[in-house]
Design goal:
The complex is a heterodimer of chains A (about 240) and B (about 180). Chain A has about 240 residues and is an all-alpha fold. Chain A has 13 helices and no strands. Chain A has two domains: about 70 residues; about 120 residues, Tetratricopeptide repeat domain (Serine Threonine Protein Phosphatase 5, Tetratricopeptide repeat), CATH 1.25.40.10. With about 180 residues, chain B is mainly alpha-helical. Classes of the chains: A mainly alpha (about 240), B mainly alpha (about 180). At the A-B interface, α1, α3, α5 and α6 of A face α1, α2, α3, α4 and α5 of B.
């Protein structure tokens, strides 16, 4: 089956648009979402239309003929990409496409991990809160990408007995971000096992990814199956099933 | 917590202006400190915001405004580091303590993919005719109603609706063709 429909008529286009712009009533929305469950092409079309709308919205930064961003544009005029960067980008794209083609011939757990992993962006930093200063100090390092420092700060708090699910979760994802999968599992597992915890679902997702990366598919599946409402998790389950078959 | 994820009910123009104001001065400073100039910063911002925004719309990024800004800056840094490397500016002086971590981070394949997809989409949008660009921008970016757009362009609502549909289909076709050429889809 093709990934996308050959033709989208105006009525379907407007239904997808109404879904994306949230102008459907509750009943229409329910019906549309029910239709998506059993229709992969429709789900793909919805995602594609999201991308197209996003491109229209951000093209404002790419077109010097448009004057729609007064506050920003007055201070910094927007210009188009110079030709040399298009050449450079085309070359990079060519190499990336060729690499992708050769790599995509066989799917491996490592490739699935790369495709599905998206680092947790961290929490907003509230430095004024003195009681949690240590935690947010670590969060600043985390957001800067200095995961070793973040872990060092947070581990210090843990040793002082300030262990919380939040702390444990972020030590886990920081470990994952720096490819320390053993450390990630060690810290994410107790959080994922705490069914009542605020971070349970996210911990289960990243724990599953750590297991995927280390080729422990059985454990990965076990945690992914707990994320019934997460479409990414369900897609990853299907991909892992294909891999095992 | 100020959320950006419920984007459909927010005005994208206001959000994007705010994101620009929050991040562009930082990026300009960052690029200047790392062997670039203001013109480089503009290119990097344009490509990075397109990738980050697409991720937000697709639900791949979830978080509040501060997290989105941090995410956008991560993409900007990644984009700039790659750009200066691919340009073979061997004598470049890095003033970025994050560089080693950036390079080691395994999530970069995902960033590359996002930048590639959003770059293609931007390229396709630029190939549309002026009227298409105007209608789509007024509807999706400015969030003007069909009636307002029709009045402003001296047309009927029904015509604007049809123009919008045709233009989006044209954009869809261009993107799918380009994406296929580049190995996607």
């Amino acid at each position: 089956m093709e990934e996308y429909r050959e033709h989208i008529d105006q009525q379907l286009f407007e239904r997808i648009e109404a879904y994306l712009l949230d102008t459907m009533n509750a009943s229409e929305r329910f019906q549309f979402e029910a239709a998506m469950v059993g229709d992969e092409q429709l789900r793909n079309e919805v995602d594609l239309q999201r991308k197209l709308v996003a491109a229209v919205q951000t093209a404002i930064f790419d077109d010097k003929t448009v004057q729609h961003i007064p506050a920003a544009e007055n201070t910094v005029p927007i210009r188009k990409i110079s030709l040399k960067w298009w050449y450079a980008a085309a070359a990079v794209l060519l190499v990336a496409s060729a690499t992708w083609y050769y790599q995509s011939i066989s799917v491996t757990p490592g490739k699935l991990f790369t495709g599905y992993f998206h680092a947790d962006p961290g929490l907003p930093v509230a430095m004024s809160s003195t009681s949690e200063y240590g935690f947010y100090d670590g969060m600043v390092s985390y957001k800067e990408g200095d995961y070793n420092k973040a872990i060092e700060i947070w581990t210090g708090l843990k040793e002082k007995g300030l262990l919380t699910d939040t702390l444990q979760y972020y030590i886990g994802v920081a470990s994952l971000n720096k490819n320390d999968f053993e450390g990630a599992v060690q810290h994410l597992l107790p959080v994922a096992e705490n069914k009542a915890g605020e971070w349970q679902q996210k911990a289960a997702w990243y724990l599953a990814l750590a297991y995927v990366k280390t080729n422990n598919i059985t454990e990965a599946m076990k945690w992914l199956q707990q994320l019934e409402d997460d479409s990414q998790a369900q897609l990853l389950i299907k991909a892992l099933q294909k891999l095992s078959s | 917590m100020e959320t950006l994820t419920n984007w459909s009910s927010s005005n994208p123009e206001d959000l994007l202006k705010q994101v620009y104001a929050d991040n562009y001065p930082w990026l300009e400073n960052y690029v200047r400190q790392n062997s670039g100039n203001d013109s480089d910063a503009k290119d990097v911002f344009q490509e990075s915001i397109a990738a980050a925004w697409m991720s937000l719309q697709q639900g791949r990024f979830k978080g509040d405004k501060a997290q989105f800004n941090a995410y956008l800056r991560q993409i900007c840094r990644f984009k700039w580091i790659n750009q200066i490397r691919s340009a073979a500016r061997s004598k470049i002086i890095y003033n970025d303590a994050l560089l080693d971590h950036e390079v080691a981070n395994n999530g970069h394949e995902v960033l590359k993919d996002q930048l590639q997809q959003s770059g293609l989409l931007q390229e396709c949008f630029m190939q549309l005719g002026a009227k298409c660009k105007q209608v789509l921008r007024l509807f999706y970016y400015k969030r003007e109603s069909l009636g307002e757009i029709a009045a402003g362009m001296g047309n009927t609502e029904e015509s604007i609706k049809t123009i919008k549909y045709r233009c989006m289909m044209q954009l869809r076709k261009l993107f799918l063709e380009q994406n296929k050429k580049h190995g996607g889809v």
